[in-house]
């Protein structure tokens, strides 16, 4: 069966550690030929700056080539359901798209955000799953309803700050027992829960003591990811709790990770959520809140609206590692591609 | 004079056979340096998935580089008529675009679908012809009112199924005398006749016994292509006939190639054609029709609307070679580029 | 401090001459490895044909790779002001965009035309300046309110026509004392003054006897560029004058460079300017005007509307060097990238 990178949860801890170790090697020494003559199709259903640039450059630096495709924009719109009579907008079916791309390229990256109308549909992640089902070559999640590449970049930045990425030691040890706060922040639009789902998943996987801070129980994440997190914490020796109290959540935190997302009970009904969300603008990450932490580091996946999600002072502080995290996207994605395409490097399953 | 690849009809049979033989070699051994340091501009006036990906990767695999341009989208709109006062939308003239690109790149690929308003204009193929007239470097047709790259990929897939692509033998022999049905199918929109024109052209060229199956005489193709086909059949020892009878057309067929297109007498007047077209939804390629064939293979150029043009069962059958044909786009286009740019490979005129 | 290429005016004459000499070497011998493993982000806020193609190919020919980004189209819209509460359209801040890109790539090219609403804002060039302020890697102006890459390509084409680009001699000598006319031409829309600002800047820098020909004093350029030009002429031994008289301006000219632009006093109020502009359609460059010159060469930066800015006869004349100038974009930009990224080549500061 074809090996994909759809979620970190599908990979063992040892496999993830090997990818992180390879990423650290790529950071020290960017050039290589692990992908010499190989190629990846980057299929974007949504905009991208970091993902696009880092995947494209990552392929180049390893001797490969990335083809950027934007279905419905410069390529044809695609049908994902099986058995349908395709008399609507879609001009072709994922069965053909994935199989044809799989004849051309060695890997397929997919970015497909939720449609934000019906969470019960969006949570099926059918674009990504459609590619994974039909593609004969490895598929990489470039952000759908989770964002596993961001998870790895995030963990790598934390390991750099708190410990070692030396392959000889156990980087996981460096993070164990640290207090990690994933805080919801305000944003004028209801956003994807992908990075929040992912942060919760990977932080619990790494044995951190995780607090999910959000305004009300309505902002708790989908049970699939809450379940993953609980299971991960149990296995890794970490903890997981939900809090709606800003002061106690920030108190003594070693790591503050911020993200805005829409409340699932109002999914697709955002006008009803808006007045609720608007009451919680004070969830912004500012200096006063960061002062309650244990000289904590701050990060965010970017893009970030300054002075809405976090203040200029927080973003420009030496404790902000968001730029390091963004840089690490390049290194971890090279390691993921190498693991899928050139497993002899020792970075993958 | 600069050698272009605008239509297979402009190339001798020996040249086409050499390109197909080179394509077979590239399929066995994809990497090379025939285009080392060389480049191609891919000028898309319309969307693309396969063409874009296969040309871009083909250039990469041979050491070259493709630049993708979309005039009117991320480049400037272009004027194609000579002698006009350019006070409309177009910001520059093909005379400059083609000559400037020709200073930068070694080849120019052009995709320019008909505008679907006036066939007497569209049949002049003026975007492609404008590039060919003004460009100092070879121009490749990436689908305008014909689709010669698709023709080669199609023939290559047929040769793989029915015979040999061994350069020592005559691949054309393998197809001679086979019954080939080009069938019109329903589609909710009136589509380009390019692939139909091309299928008719190349099938007759290869000595097949060709039946053009379409609902009514109004769906017969433009006389230019009907004339090419008649001439080709006469020269190659094949045959050409038009049929409106599904049963007799499918009966004993070795090859069924499907395509939808708009009826030329209603060109630009599609509302009038729509009720006519809607009466022929039963032209869909299904298992019952395929059962009448001589265990025939099925293909289509893609994109294809499942259960509109062909049923899931036909598409997912082992007799469907559409994915092979799509893959072959990569190989034949590499061979065309090499023939135009590195003729010492022996693949071109 | 990071070295950028924002304007030729920031570089010494010796540095510009070195870049031009390197460009001439690249024209004779295009392949190289000055950018081996290196990369450039090409950030386009506006369309492009030549700039995009020539930068992308230039990077490729020197062993590097260009990533093309279009913020607000396939990337996120960007905020450029400091200290703002980002609750509008922009999803991220230039501080993050520039710093993150600077972690991925070795150079950043920026195209950002004026917004054409308020010249007092546009003349701050804040997109380019924002990148330059925040980027840790060199930033290259790909046309904002000036177009320095075009300047170098223009001068290179003039040196090729009038003298020598041999690095042993002084190419500037070849142009000194030639009569250079920068003529405004009609265009149905009010256009950017960037190329006009740039032509004035570089022509005076090179010691030419420069006449700015425009319909009325309202079409004189911004004082920043008029001041640069006056200072340059004083230093280089050239001259600068403004003329509204077509006959005397063309009389004896060695070089005619055409460009259309909007009159600054009507900036953003184009409906008021339109009837004025419409009275000057006769500024078109035609054979009668060129006959008054000293067998002068003609050029334009392209795109050009034929028979609006210049007639077919002028464009197709052997004295037209616009295609050479466009080709030179490739060579000079390679030299600029090499100067910024591989200064050991000797082409830059």
UniProtKB/TrEMBL annotation, chains A, B, C:
N(2)-acetyl-L-ornithine binds at residues 143, 259, 302. It comes from Luteimonas soli. Its EC number is 2.1.3.9. This is N-acetylornithine carbamoyltransferase. Pathway: Amino-acid biosynthesis; L-arginine biosynthesis. Residues 3-160 form the Aspartate/ornithine carbamoyltransferase carbamoyl-P binding domain. The lineage of its organism: Bacteria, Pseudomonadati, Pseudomonadota, Gammaproteobacteria, Lysobacterales. It catalyses: N(2)-acetyl-L-ornithine + carbamoyl phosphate = N(2)-acetyl-L-citrulline + phosphate + H(+). It comes from the Bacteria. PANTHER family: ORNITHINE CARBAMOYLTRANSFERASE, MITOCHONDRIAL, ORNITHINE TRANSCARBAMYLASE, MITOCHONDRIAL. Pfam families: OTCace, OTCace_N. Carbamoyl phosphate binds at residues 48-51, 76, 111, 147-150, 301-302, 329. GO terms for molecular function: N-acetylornithine carbamoyltransferase activity. Residues 193-339 form the Aspartate/ornithine carbamoyltransferase Asp/Orn-binding domain. Keywords: Amino-acid biosynthesis, Arginine biosynthesis, Cytoplasm, Transferase. The modification N6-carboxylysine is found at residue 309. It is an enzyme of class 2 (transferase). The gene is argF'. The record marks 91 as: Key residue in conferring substrate specificity for N-acetyl-L-ornithine versus N-succinyl-L-ornithine. Belongs to the aspartate/ornithine carbamoyltransferase superfamily. AOTCase family. It is found in: Cytoplasm. InterPro entries: ArgF, Asp/Orn_carbamoyltranf_P-bd, Asp/Orn_carbamoylTrfase, Asp/Orn_carbamoylTrfase_sf, Asp_carbamoyltransf_Asp/Orn-bd. Homotrimer. Catalyzes the transfer of the carbamoyl group from carbamoyl phosphate to the delta-amino group of N(2)-acetyl-L-ornithine to produce N(2)-acetyl-L-citrulline. This is a step in an alternative arginine biosynthesis pathway.
